[in-house]
């Protein structure tokens, strides 16, 4: 991570989420809100379908830079705005696409800008990770 240029893509990936993914995350996180696994509850509260947990989406996004970074301990701060929920179809699931680009560089840190989309829509806005340079 010595030569960094603003605009360079440092990591990209697509993560496929299924209803099973949501149930597993609910168990790990303790968040058993039924909007994350029951269509009837999601519909009753006016949602377009069962939603992925926001923190799951946020975690998937930041973990995209893990291999490039080499050490997650170099992450200094991370923030996002939740722009739009990720609806997870019972059959097709949902694909979350993440692109990580260098947004800013100084002598000691770099800002990584994450573009996070699902179904053609941005789901995390202002997703930025400040990392300590190696």
Kindly describe this structure.
- The protein has 134 residues and is α+β, with helices and mostly antiparallel strands.
- It contains four helices and five strands, in the order βααααββββ.
- Strands 1-3-4-5-2 form a five-stranded antiparallel beta sheet.
- Helices cover 23% and strands 38% of the residues.
- The radius of gyration is 16 Å and the shape is elongated.
- Strand 4 and strand 5 (121-132) form a beta hairpin.
- The model has no long low-confidence stretch (mean pLDDT 96).
- The chain has a single domain, classed as Roll (Thiol Ester Dehydrase, Chain A), CATH 3.10.129.10.
Key traits:
134 residues, alpha+beta, Thiol Ester Dehydrase, Chain A, 5-stranded antiparallel beta sheet, 4 helices, 38% strand, elongated
Could you outline the blueprint of secondary structure elements for this entry?
Blueprint: E1 9-17, H1 19-29, H2 39-44, H3 54-63, H4 66-69, E2 75-82, E3 94-105, E4 109-118, E5 121-132
Antiparallel strand pairs: 1-3, 2-5, 3-4, 4-5
Could you give a quick summary of the protein structure above?
The protein has 134 residues and is α+β, with helices and mostly antiparallel strands. It is 23% helix and 38% strand. The protein contains 4 helices and 5 strands.
The total number of structural domains is 1
- CATH topological fold name: Thiol Ester Dehydrase, Chain A
CA-atom Rg in angstroms: 16 Å
Task: Report the end-to-end length measured between terminal Cα atoms.
Answer: 6 Å
Largest sheet: 5 strands, antiparallel
Q: What is the strand tally?
A: 5
Question: How many helices?
Answer: 4
Q: Report the top-level CATH class.
A: Alpha Beta
Strand line-up across the major sheet: 1-3-4-5-2
Helicity level, as a percent range? 10-25%
Query: What's the name of the CATH homologous superfamily?
Result: Hotdog Thioesterase
Task: Indicate the proportion of strand residues.
Answer: 35-45%
Task: Assign an overall shape.
Answer: elongated
* Name of the CATH architecture: Roll
Order of helices and strands: EHHHHEEEE
Give the integer mean of the pLDDT values: 96
């Amino acid at each position: 991570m010595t030569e960094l240029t603003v605009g360079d893509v440092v990591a990209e990936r697509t993560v496929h989420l299924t209803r099973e993914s949501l149930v597993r995350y609910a168990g790990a996180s303790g968040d058993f809100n039924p909007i994350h696994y029951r269509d009837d509850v999601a519909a009753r509260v006016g949602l377009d379908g069962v939603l992925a947990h926001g923190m799951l989406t946020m975690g998937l996004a930041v973990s995209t830079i893990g291999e490039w970074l080499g050490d997650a301990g170099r992450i200094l701060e991370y923030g996002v705005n939740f722009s739009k929920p990720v609806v997870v179809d019972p059959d097709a699931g949902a694909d979350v696409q993440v692109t990580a680009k260098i947004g800013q560089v100084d002598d000691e840190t770099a800002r990584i800008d994450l573009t996070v989309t699902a179904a053609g829509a941005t789901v995390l806005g202002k997703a930025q990770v400040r990392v300590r340079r190696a």
